[in-house]
C-alpha cells in the first residue's frame, strides 16, 4: 500500500514537472491567443480597407418614373376585400 502511495506521489510530481516544462516551452496560452487575435484583426482590417475603397458612394438618384405608391382608394378596396373574406370565414365556422 505504501509503495502505491509513493508511486502516485511520484506520478503527481512528474506530471507537474511536465506541465511546467510545457508551459515554459510553449509559452502562456493566453499570450498566444491574444497574439493570434491581434494578427487576425490586423489582416481583417487590411482586407476590409481595400474592399471598402472599391465600394461606390451612396446613390442619390430619384426613383424611376412609373412607380406608383398605393393610394387611399387602394387601401379602401383592400379593406373591403378583407372584410368580405372574414365574413365568409365566419360563415364557414358556423
How would you explain this protein's 3D organization?
It is a single chain. By secondary structure, the protein is mostly helical. It has a domain at 1-51. Helices cover 78% and strands 0% of the residues. It has 3 helices and no strands. The chain has helices at 2-26, 29-54, 72-93. The chain is elongated and about 95 Å long. The termini are far apart. It comes from Fasciolopsis buskii. Belongs to the SNF7 family. One of its GO terms (biological process) is vacuolar transport. InterPro entries: Snf7_fam. Pfam families: Snf7.
Q: Spans with pLDDT under 50 lasting ≥5 residues?
A: none
Instruction: Please tally the β strands and state the result.
Output: 0
List SSEs in N-to-C order.
HHH
Gross geometry:
elongated
Q: Could you give a short account of the major beta sheet?
A: none
What is the mean predicted local confidence, pLDDT? Answer: 79
Q: Give the terminus-to-terminus CA distance.
A: 85 Å
Number of helices: 3
What structural class do the secondary elements suggest? mainly alpha
Helix content: over 70%
The value of Rg in angstroms is 36 Å
In terms of DSSP E residues, the strand content is: under 5%
Protein traits:
94 residues, mainly alpha, 3 helices, 0% strand
Brief overview:
It contains three helices and no strands. The chain is mainly alpha-helical and 94 residues long.
Task: Break the fold down into its secondary structure elements and pairings.
Elements: H1 2-26, H2 29-54, H3 72-93
Amino acid at each position: 500500500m505504501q509503495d502505491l502511495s509513493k508511486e502516485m506521489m511520484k506520478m503527481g510530481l512528474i506530471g507537474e514537472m511536465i506541465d511546467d516544462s510545457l508551459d515554459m516551452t510553449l509559452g502562456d496560452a493566453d499570450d498566444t491567443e491574444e497574439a493570434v487575435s491581434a494578427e487576425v484583426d490586423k489582416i481583417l482590417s487590411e482586407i476590409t480597407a481595400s474592399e471598402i475603397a472599391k465600394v461606390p458612394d451612396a446613390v442619390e438618384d430619384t426613383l424611376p418614373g412609373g412607380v406608383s405608391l398605393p393610394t387611399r382608394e387602394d387601401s379602401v378596396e383592400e379593406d373591403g376585400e378583407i372584410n368580405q373574406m372574414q365574413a365568409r370565414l365566419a360563415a364557414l365556422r358556423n
